[in-house]
Specification:
One of its GO terms (cellular component) is cytoplasm. By secondary structure, the chain is α/β, with parallel strands linked by helices. Helices cover 33% and strands 19% of the residues. Strands 8-9-11-10-14-18-15-16 form an 8-stranded mixed beta sheet, with helices on both faces. The longest helix has 22 residues, at 188-209. The radius of gyration is 26 Å and the shape is elongated.
Length: 529
C-alpha cells in the first residue's frame, strides 16, 4: 500500500498566476508525478459560446494554473481534444516540454473530481491509483481545501483502487501501487481512518481471493489467531470435538463430508472502558461450496472459494475496531466449514438438531449457509449477551438476482437498526437495499418431520428465496435486535470499477466499520421504531 504523507497546504496566490504555491518540487526531491484537480464545469441554463456549450471547460482547482504554465499546456484546448470534462475519475496526462524534462516531474496528471462530492472523490482516488501504478513518488494538490469526509473518501478510493488480488506462482501480478504520495493540505484524521478502513478491506479481499486448497477452515482459524495477536484481541477456536460436545449440529452437518473439519472462531475486541454496546457480528465462512449432495453445476462452483466472504469481513472488521479504538465492544463469530461430498456428507431429508435445540429438515444441501449461521446466531444470542446482532453472508442467489452486483440485501427485526445500517451504506460506499421480512411467508418453512424446513419445498414454487432465508435465520436470534446482510451479489466483481477491484470486493467491510463508528445503540426494550 502506498505510503501517504502530508506537505503544507498550498500558499495563497498573490499577484501573477505563476507566483509559487509550494506545489512544484525541486529536482532533488525525486517527485516523478504531479497531480492537480479539475472539477466539472458548473451547470448553466444557457451558453452564448457554441463551442463552450459543446465542450465546457473544466473548472481549475488549486495548482492547476501554475502547473499549466510550467508545462506550457493549454489545458482547455487539450481537454476539449481529449474529451476530458472534469468528470470524477477522468485523467488527462501531460508530459513536460522537451527543454524542461530535467527540471519538471515526468508526468503531470489533471484529475477529474466532478462535483467534489464524497462519491466523486472516491472515484477520483481510485482512478489516480491505477494511473500511477509503478511510479515512485507522487505529489498532489487534489485535497487542498476539502473537508475531512471528502478527503477520507478520496484516500479510501485510492487505496482500494490500487488493490490487486494475490497471485500464486511465477507470473508477476503487474506493477505495484506508487511507492509514495505527498498531499498538500492533508487532514491527518482523514488519512488515519482511510488507512485503517482500507487495510481492513484489503485483508478481507485477500482472505476471500485465496484458493480453497489454501483457505480451509483450520487455515482461517490460524489467520484469526494471527489477527488477534496483531491487534490484542481475545480469541477462542472450537475444533470438531468441542463443536460436537457443545451441540453445534448445523455446523457439523455442513462440514461432515469434508476432509477439512469445521471450526467456530470467536474473536473479541474490548474497549478499555466498556461504556458502549456489545455488538456481535456473525459471518458465514464456507471455505468452498460444492453444493454437497445437491451438487452445483461446474460453472456455478468456480467462484465458491469466495463463499467465506462474510467470515472474512467479520474478522477484518473486528481487527479494525481495535485499531480505531471504538467505544463499543465488538465480537466476531466465524462459522467455518467446507461443504463437500463424501460418504459421511449430510443429505436431503436429514433432520439436524441446531445449537438451540431447534430441529431442521434438510431440503437442499446447497442451502448450507443458513445452517452454519443458525448455530452461530443461536450461540451468540444465548451465550454472548449481545445488544445488537448482525450477520453477513453470501447467502442466496435470489438476493443477487433481485439486486444485482451493486447492492447487498438488508433485513432487520428492528426499525432503528435498519435506519443505522442504511445510513452506514450511504456514507461508506457499500450500498444496501432493504427487503421486507414478510412473516406471512413463514408457512414455506413448515415441516412434517422437524421444527422447521430450511428451504421452501420445490412443489410449493414459492420464490422469495432471500426473504425465506432471512425468516429462517430470524428463528435463531431469540428476539435480539438483529440485522441480516445478504452479500451474494456484490461479494465479487468481474472487472475493476472505481474503488472495486476484480475478484473479491470485501463488500460489507466499509459498511460495518461505518456502522460501528457512527451508530448509537439504545437499550433493547427501548427501540420501538
Amino acid at each position: 500500500m502506498t505510503a501517504v504523507s502530508a506537505i503544507g497546504q498550498l500558499n495563497a496566490r498573490t499577484g501573477a498566476p505563476t507566483a509559487g504555491t509550494g506545489l512544484h518540487p525541486a529536482a532533488s526531491e525525486g517527485v516523478d508525478v504531479l497531480v492537480v484537480a479539475l472539477a466539472a464545469a458548473a451547470e448553466t441554463s444557457a451558453r452564448e459560446d457554441t463551442e463552450e456549450a459543446l465542450h465546457p471547460t473544466p473548472a481549475p482547482r488549486r495548482g492547476a494554473v501554475e502547473t499549466a504554465l510550467a508545462y506550457g499546456v493549454d489545458v482547455a484546448a487539450r481537454a476539449a481534444t481529449a474529451g476530458f470534462t472534469g468528470k470524477a475519475g477522468e485523467t488527462l496526462l501531460v508530459q513536460p516540454p522537451s527543454g524542461r524534462a530535467e527540471e519538471l516531474p515526468g508526468k503531470l496528471i489533471y484529475l477529474g473530481v466532478g462535483d467534489e462530492s464524497v462519491q466523486g472523490m472516491r472515484k477520483a482516488g481510485a482512478a489516480l491509483a491505477r494511473t500511477t501504478r509503478g511510479d515512485a513518488k507522487v505529489r498532489a494538490a487534489v485535497l487542498d481545501g476539502l473537508g475531512a469526509e471528502a478527503q477520507q473518501a478520496f484516500l479510501e478510493g485510492f487505496f482500494l483502487g490500487g488493490y490487486r488480488a494475490p497471485r500464486l506462482g511465477k507470473t508477476p501480478a503487474g506493477p505495484p501501487m506508487a511507492r509514495e504520495m505527498e498531499l498538500t493540505g492533508l487532514d491527518p484524521d482523514a488519512l488515519r481512518l482511510a488507512e485503517i478502513t482500507a487495510r481492513a478491506v484489503w485483508f478481507s479481499r485477500d482472505l476471500t481471493n485465496l484458493p480453497p486448497d489454501v483457505a480451509t477452515p483450520e487455515w482461517m482459524a490460524a489467520q484469526s489467531r494471527a489477527a488477534a495477536a496483531r491487534a490484542g484481541l481475545e480469541i477462542t477456536v472450537l475444533d470438531e470435538a468441542e463443536l460436537k460436545r457443545r451441540g453445534f449440529g448445523g455446523l457439523l452437518a455442513v462440514g461432515s463430508g469434508s476432509a477439512n473439519p469445521p471450526r467456530l472462531v470467536q474473536v473479541s475486541y474490548r474497549p478499555a472502558a466498556e461504556t458502549g454496546a456489545h455488538v456481535v457480528l456473525a459471518g458465514k465462512g464456507i471455505t468452498f461450496d460444492s453444493g454437497g449432495i445437491s451438487l452445483k453445476p461446474r460453472d456455478a462452483m468456480m467462484s465458491m472459494k469466495m463463499d467465506m466472504a462474510g467470515a472474512a469481513v467479520v474478522l477484518a472488521v473486528v481487527e479494525a475496531a481495535a485499531a480505531l479504538g471504538l467505544e463499543h465492544r465488538v465480537t466476531g463469530v466465524l462459522a467455518l466449514a467446507e461443504n463437500a461430498i463424501g460418504g459421511s456428507a449430510y443429505r436431503p431429508g436429514d433432520v439436524v438438531r441446531t445449537y438451540n435445540g431447534t430441529t431442521v429438515e434438510i431440503g437442499n444441501t446447497d442451502a448450507e449457509g443458513r445452517m452454519v449461521l443458525a448455530d452461530a446466531l443461536a450461540y451468540a444470542a444465548a451465550e454472548l449477551s449481545p445488544d445488537v446482532l448482525v450477520d453477513i453472508a453470501t447467502l442466496t442467489g435470489a438476493a443477487a438476482l433481485g439486486l444485482g452486483q451493486q447492492h447487498g440485501a438488508l433485513f432487520s427485526n428492528t426499525p432503528g437498526l435498519l435506519r443505522a445500517m442504511e445510513q452506514a451504506g450511504q456514507v461508506s460506499g457499500d450500498r444496501i437495499w432493504q427487503l421486507p421480512l414478510v412473516h406471512e411467508y413463514e408457512y414455506a418453512l413448515e415441516s412434517d418431520t422437524a421444527d422447521l424446513a430450511h428451504v421452501a419445498p420445490p412443489a410449493l414454487k414459492f420464490g422469495a428465496g432471500a426473504i425465506v432465508a432471512a425468516l429462517f435465520l430470524e428463528k435463531f436470534v431469540d428476539g435480539v435486535p438483529w440485522a441480516h446482510l445478504d452479500i451474494a451479489g456484490p461479494m465479487r466483481a468481474g472487472s475493476d470499477n472505481h474503488e472495486t477491484a476484480k475478484g473479491a470486493t470485501g463488500f460489507g467491510t466499509r459498511l460495518l466499520i461505518s456502522f460501528l463508528r457512527n451508530a448509537t445503540f439504545p437499550p433493547k426494550a427501548q427501540d420501538a421504531g
